[in-house]
TrEMBL record:
Pfam families: HpcH_HpaI. Residues 11-214 form the HpcH/HpaI aldolase/citrate lyase domain. The keyword Cell cycle does not apply. It comes from Deinococcus aerolatus. Keywords: Lyase, Magnesium, Metal-binding. This is CoA ester lyase. PANTHER family: CITRATE LYASE SUBUNIT BETA, LYASE BETA SUBUNIT, PUTATIVE (AFU_ORTHOLOGUE AFUA_4G13030)-RELATED. One of its GO terms (molecular function) is lyase activity. Its cofactor is Mg(2+).
Length: 285
């Protein structure tokens, strides 16, 4: 069993098809902050039972150094009940539920394990605030492929047709203290495009990125991580803030700019993320 709760940074979450035992085994040594063993879209109907058995064996064998989630098949499918039962009894760190469209579904399927709700439809986007408010929901994962299809959008290098929906998911998750994770990038042969999309996601407020290939892990960890320069900057700002406050100053300047409590809080978050990634031993590049 995996004993890892989903508590650390989630710069990268790697999808691994449940019907690929060698890929599952390889994932144990990769630099993902979390692994999602996938029983849904990545697995053909005729391989569902085999994939479920593979995932069960992988979970019970243990030895995972990061949280391991299971993406189960959705409500109304022939596999939903067996998938959820297996994931719960085998010790998954959480469940990833596809195509969540309302808070009722999320509430009903919160079975004592963290639930990660996939927002993949227009209804899911519109109801994202209510879904994020469900106590058992740990975060929201964007499913951009299905969402783009449902919206009838055209491909765009900067995801312009999806920007409203992406920001809506971030807003809903952050408003309720949950983590928003950005969608996968499909073209594993386009590292420049992937890096650009990671930078965009970070700018929009996502906490990390879901990925589909090991080569995407390093760039995702770097994009959503902390650099040495940012660490030094944060430490210097906090030192200036502490010195000014101890001197009784109500206004502190750092680098020519005014510093307020929110800037000090942000610097603390930078250092906390840095410490968490160092303790976890996850690679950032």
């Amino acid at each position: 069993m995996t004993d890892h709760a989903v508590s650390g940074p989630l710069r990268s979450m790697l999808y691994v098809p449940g019907d690929k035992p060698r890929a599952i085994e390889k994932a144990r040594g990769l630099a993902a902050d979390a692994v999602i063993l996938d029983l849904e879209d990545a697995v053909a109907p005729e391989h569902k039972a085999e994939a479920r058995a593979n995932v069960r064996a992988a979970l019970l064998a243990g030895g995972w150094r990061v949280p391991v989630l299971v993406r189960v098949n959705g409500q109304g499918t022939p596999w939903e009940h067996e998938d959820r039962e297996m994931a719960l009894l085998s010790g998954a760190s959480g469940l990833v539920l596809p195509k969540v469209e309302d808070a009722r579904a999320a509430s009903e399927l919160s079975l004592g394990r963290p639930l990660w709700a996939m927002i993949e439809t227009p209804a899911g986007v519109l109801n994202a605030p209510a879904i994020a408010a469900v106590p058992g929901v740990a975060g929201l994962l964007v499913g951009a492929n299905d969402l783009a299809r449902a919206l009838r959008t055209r491909p765009h290098p900067d995801r312009l047709p999806l920007l409203h929906a992406l920001s809506a998911v971030v807003l809903a998750a952050r408003a309720h203290g949950k983590l928003p994770l950005d969608a996968v990038f499909n073209d594993v042969r386009d590292p420049a495009g992937f890096a650009r999309e990671c930078a965009q996601g970070r700018a929009l407020g996502f906490a990390g990125k879901t990925v589909i290939h090991p080569d995407q892990l390093g760039p995702a960890n770097a994009a959503y991580g902390v650099t040495e320069e940012e660490v030094q900057q944060a430490r210097a700002l906090l030192a200036a803030w502490a010195e000014g406050r101890s001197a009784g100053k109500s206004v502190v300047t750092f680098g020519g700019a005014l510093v307020e409590q929110m800037h000090a809080d942000e610097a603390q978050e930078v250092l906390a993320l840095w410490a968490a990634t160092q303790e976890g031993g996850a690679e950032s590049g």
